[in-house]
């Protein structure tokens, strides 16, 4: 076998070490550690590089112009010379949305990068939820963000399902705060007799919104797959598919 150390004087092999030290337990452990370091070094480098970088400037107000030819992960920046203090102000959460596009007897008013371009690259967005009595935001996920919910008014029952399938849920009152880990299925319902509202913060400028029932039953998944997966027959599946309310979102 070709001796790598002979051709590369600056390198050291376990065989070369053994010529200096007599074979013993310390020698074996030293060689094993050297091999482990060599194997793990590229993996460690990859893990470090996998972390999302911080923003590279103090702000980058999004240029949402449909004619902008630049394609990036996010949005290109509006020229700083055209940015004013008004770009950083958003008043859209002062009143609730008028159309219940994301819930049943409930509305969501969004402040994502699409409504609030100053959020571009900052990794944050907000939403205001408003509920009539019995109003529901159905089970859903935000694949790109964790979320907190702060109760502004009323009584809200909310919770999430962990990756192990455990439901964590509480009844919240004014001033209470609850957190939903990234990607978990969660929901909200007004369990009081009056109007309820919350202010939610999310850790992405565009967190995404996937409603569980709609993703499952209002998509193009073959009926045979759904019938087998849910343990129901074709008649029951068609009933469920026809019952899912159309919902919008982020």
From TrEMBL:
Record-linked Gene3D superfamilies: Jelly Rolls
User: What protein is this chain from?
Assistant: Germin-like protein
Superkingdom of this protein's organism:
Eukaryota
Pfam families linked to this entry: Cupin_1
Q: Which family does it belong to?
A: Belongs to the germin family.
Q: Which residues cross the membrane?
A: 20-41
Q: Which residues form the Cupin type-1 domain?
A: 91-238
Question: Which locations, inside or outside the cell, does it occupy?
Answer: Secreted, Extracellular space, Apoplast
UniProt keyword annotations, A-Z: Apoplast, Manganese, Membrane, Metal-binding, Secreted, Transmembrane, Transmembrane helix
